[in-house]
Specification:
The complex is a heterodimer of chains A (112) and B (116).
Chain A: E1 3-5, E2 9-13, E3 18-25, E4 32-37, E5 44-49, E6 53-57, E7 60-65, E8 70-75, E9 84-91, E10 100-102, E11 106-111
Parallel strand pairs in A: 2-11
Antiparallel strand pairs in A: 1-3, 3-8, 4-5, 4-9, 6-7, 7-8, 9-10, 9-11
Chain B: E1 5-7, E2 10-13, E3 19-24, E4 31-37, E5 44-50, E6 53-57, E7 64-68, E8 74-78, E9 87-94, E10 106-107, E11 111-115
Parallel strand pairs in B: 2-11
Antiparallel strand pairs in B: 1-3, 3-8, 4-5, 4-9, 5-6, 7-8, 9-10, 9-11
Classes of the chains: A mainly beta (112), B mainly beta (116).
């Protein structure tokens, strides 16, 4: 079956670092996406991993281990505007399968 | 560069009615996916359109149907509305030519549907 797990909620302090984990079980794998979603708004693309390792993009980094079915999103130098939900999504590899399987999202609360 | 647009922003309907939601993809994109997102949940894939045809469908009943026009814009139709259809409906566009392995999806602002 398909399953993507993320913590429901996390709290961190402004200026600190936080790591949001995502584990997945899918019938195939063809890439993992991280999206940010502020309350009442549409998700916006943050990162994409298809090979093992770390992808760094400014204050945000994303890591993937395909053998472990595991990814994390690392946010550094946290700002109040980073308060949002962070969604992990996986694209399965089966030919003709174009949909993304989404986790429920992790609500990140930033405190001053 | 125009992003993904959706209309209407909000909609209130009564059980049993029908609704049509509209989406215009980002400039240069040719593929449109529709998602339903309940409060506190991740998006659930409804279906995807490419070249005016439904390319893939998620686990949604036939009450949910769609269409893609030659200009790549798309409509989502929901018949016989149920209370449980109340959700945020998101449209996402992407470009097949960008490579099937990294065609990230750009989302529109969504349509908030409330069924009473």
């Amino acid at each position: 079956g398909q399953n993507i797990d993320q913590p429901t909620e996390m709290t961190a302090t402004e200026g600190a670092i936080v790591q949001i984990n995502c584990t997945y079980q899918t019938s195939g794998f063809n890439g993992l996406f991280w999206y940010q979603q502020h309350a009442g708004e549409a998700p916006t693309f943050l990162s994409y991993n298809v090979l093992d390792g770390l992808e760094e993009k400014g204050r945000f980094s994303s890591f993937l281990s395909r053998s472990k079915g595991y990814s994390y999103l690392l946010l550094k130098e946290l700002q109040m505007k980073d308060s949002a939900s962070y969604l992990c999504a996986v694209r399965e590899a089966a030919w003709g399968n174009y949909q993304l399987i989404w986790g429920a999202g992790t609500k990140l609360i930033i405190k001053p | 560069d125009a992003g993904v647009t959706q209309s209407p922003t909000h909609l209130i309907k009564t059980r049993g009615q029908q609704v049509t939601l509209r989406c215009s993809p980002k400039s240069g994109h040719d593929t449109v996916s529709w998602y339903q997102q309940a409060l506190g949940q991740g998006p659930q894939f409804i279906f995807q359109y490419y070249e005016e045809e439904e390319r893939q469908r998620g686990n949604f009943p036939d009450r949910f149907s769609g269409h893609q026009f030659p200009n790549y814009s798309s409509e989502l139709n929901v018949n016989a509305l149920l209370l449980g259809d109340s959700a945020l409906y998101l449209c996402a566009s992407s470009r097949v030519g960008g490579g099937a392995f990294h065609n990230e999806q750009y989302f529109g602002p969504g349509t908030r549907l409330t069924v009473t």
